[in-house]
């Protein structure tokens, strides 16, 4: 589409666009917001540079897309509980979000989108990668598409494959985890979900969250989960974003997976994250 209020810089052939123009700390006109929303649907992940946002301003922008969720596993900011900080310090040895996933797939109604704002960034590294699961679905053979029709994934917060979310949060980083009773949250969602706004189908499966396929054993499920998880993130379906202080990203969890790259040992990275409520995947 032709945008009037945005200058759009495409990040890769698969997805992702940097939107130049808007100052997100100000109240956006409906016209600018409508174009931002359209760019979000068109590109799957949108990015802004050189923003200067306090938590309330970030929350106000997030709310233009819908009500916000409170993340169950990390302490929110005192002044704005809908937002929390992703922090990796010089001495932390593990990052948050370092595995391909779509946020909170284990929730009955996972977030529509996630918004991340960069407060401190490492001198080198710390990029985030994104993968377009609509393209990944469309590239499958008709035989595979037919086989996946009606298959349900059982998504779990327990992260069994990597030793448990509670344990990983306790040992991982300087971040403030909550004493949550939801570490075993589970939800069943179709492996192929239809985007509620574009009507396009995409894959909804990941190693970290999809524990098994419904009515199958783990041994039966695992090869298919692993195949699809790898297929989704083939290089031609991805883009990569390099953070600067003041960068902001918003990605569509309904059609995008992401991966926070852990390649900056000994350096700090501090981001502010919030999530926007979504629908039950269908
Ligand atoms: C996340 O998975 O939300 C973290 C992404 C990042 O820190 O780049």
Describe this structure in words.
This protein is α+β, with helices and mostly antiparallel strands. The protein has one domain (7-276): Double-stranded beta-helix, CATH 3.60.130. Helix content is 21%, strand content 26%. Helix 1 (30-43) links the parallel strand 2 (17-20) and strand 3 (45-48). The chain is globular and about 50 Å long. The model has no long low-confidence stretch (mean pLDDT 93). The chain binds succinic acid. The site of succinic acid has 10 residues, from strand 6, strand 15 and strand 16.
SSE order and pairing:
Layout: E1 7-10, E2 17-20, H1 30-43, E3 45-48, H2 55-63, E4 68-69, E5 84-88, E6 113-120, E7 128-132, H3 133-138, H4 142-148, E8 152-156, H5 165-172, E9 186-190, E10 192-194, E11 201-203, E12 210-213, H6 218-232, E13 238-241, E14 248-252, E15 256-260, E16 269-276
Parallel strand pairs: 2-3
Antiparallel strand pairs: 1-2, 3-14, 4-16, 5-16, 6-14, 6-16, 7-13, 7-15, 8-9, 8-12, 10-11
Succinic acid (SIN) is lined by residues 86, 96-97, 114, 116, 128, 258, 260, 271, 273.
């Amino acid at each position: 589409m032709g945008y009037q209020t945005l200058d759009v810089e495409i990040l890769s052939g698969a997805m992702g666009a940097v939107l130049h123009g808007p100052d997100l700390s100000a109240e956006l006109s409906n016209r600018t917001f409508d174009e931002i929303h359209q760019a979000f649907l068109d590109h799957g992940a949108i990015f802004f540079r050189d923003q200067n946002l306090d938590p309330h301003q970030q929350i106000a922008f997030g709310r233009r897309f819908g009500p916000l969720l409170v993340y169950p596993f990390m302490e929110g900011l005192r002044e704005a509980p809908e937002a929390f900080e992703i922090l990796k310090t010089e001495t932390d040895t593990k990052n948050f979000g370092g595995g391909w996933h779509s946020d909170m797939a284990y929730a009955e109604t996972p977030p529509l989108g996630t918004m991340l704002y960069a407060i401190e960034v490492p001198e080198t590294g710390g990029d985030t990668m994104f993968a377009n699961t609509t393209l990944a679905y469309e590239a499958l053979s008709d035989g595979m598409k037919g086989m996946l029709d009606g298959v349900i994934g059982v998504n779990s917060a327990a992260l069994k494959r990597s030793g448990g979310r509670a344990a990983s949060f306790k040992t991982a980083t300087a971040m403030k985890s909550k004493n949550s009773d939801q570490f075993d949250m589970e939800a069943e969602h179709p492996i192929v979900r239809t985007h509620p706004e574009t009507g396009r189908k995409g894959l909804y499966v990941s190693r970290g969250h999809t524990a098994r396929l419904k009515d199958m054993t783990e041994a039966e499920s695992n090869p298919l989960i692993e195949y699809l998880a790898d297929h989704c993130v083939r290089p031609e379906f991805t883009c990569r974003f390099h953070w600067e202080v003041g960068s902001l990203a918003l990605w569509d969890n309904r059609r995008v997976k992401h991966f926070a790259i852990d390649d900056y040992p000994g350096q700090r990275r501090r981001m502010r994250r919030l999530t926007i409520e979504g629908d039950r995947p269908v």
